[in-house]
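It is worth pausing here to work through a concrete case rather than discussing structure prediction in the abstract. The textbook approach is simple: state the sequence, then state the predicted structure, then interpret. We follow exactly that order.
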Amino acid sequence: MYTEYSTAEQRAAPQENISRQRAPARRAAPRRRRSRRYDRRRVLLIGMALVLFLGGFISGCCVGRAHNRSGGESSANDGGVSAKPQKSNIPASITQPDYVQEDLLPVNQYSRCGDKLQRVNAVVIHYVGNPNTTARQNRSYFENLATTGDTSASSNLIVGMEGEALLCVPLDEVAYCSNDRNYDTVSIEFCHPGTDGKPTQDTYDTLVKLTAWLCGKFDFTTEDVIRHYDVTGKDCPRYFVQHEDAWEQFLLDVQEYIKTHGTEEPEGLS
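Step two, the predicted structure:
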């Protein structure tokens, strides 16, 4: 059956269709607006979190630096310095015992550089390693290095096979004798007749009392008396390395000498 529509109805029908067609679009629009608002909130929250994190990090760094500047503990990683330099134990003037003859090497780059020690932390015992040579001959060898330049070597003190002793480098200066301990030790080399490095009795007696005297000058105990072997592992002084009991006895004899005679060498005592 054919139905007629008025003009108004005809106009309304298309509008109604349009309204139905556009309705889904209108319903989708609020969802898009809500999504955009949610995105803005999320960005804002993330931004605030980053600001808080960075603020705390920077604040912590500043506090850490202030703590270090104010004397707080420092670590090796931050380059801080926690230990104060030790006070020097070197006497202002040192007068050697009368059995020690002063025969100083000339200042040169190979055997007496002239550098001053800041502190002495040990006495290092060596043997010359050249059998049946005298203290004077070994001192001459050190002096000749200034000309030959063969190597760098010297010792503060040398004890000969008859018990004589020479001071070759002042006790407040560096001697080239103990490798990486040159700058905080004083050294004694002793002569010996054989390849085993065993000292004569005269050499031994002088070595004992000379070591005791040095202990007194630098406020040491026998725990501060070491061998070249204890520094580098070198077979020096050979006899005291290969005979540990002889080394222990030497330290006991130094202790006994200090107990009996003290560390200040009386004039003329030999």
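Step three, interpretation. The two ends are 152 Å apart (CA to CA). Helices lie at 7-69, 135-148, 201-217, 228-232, 238-242, 244-261.
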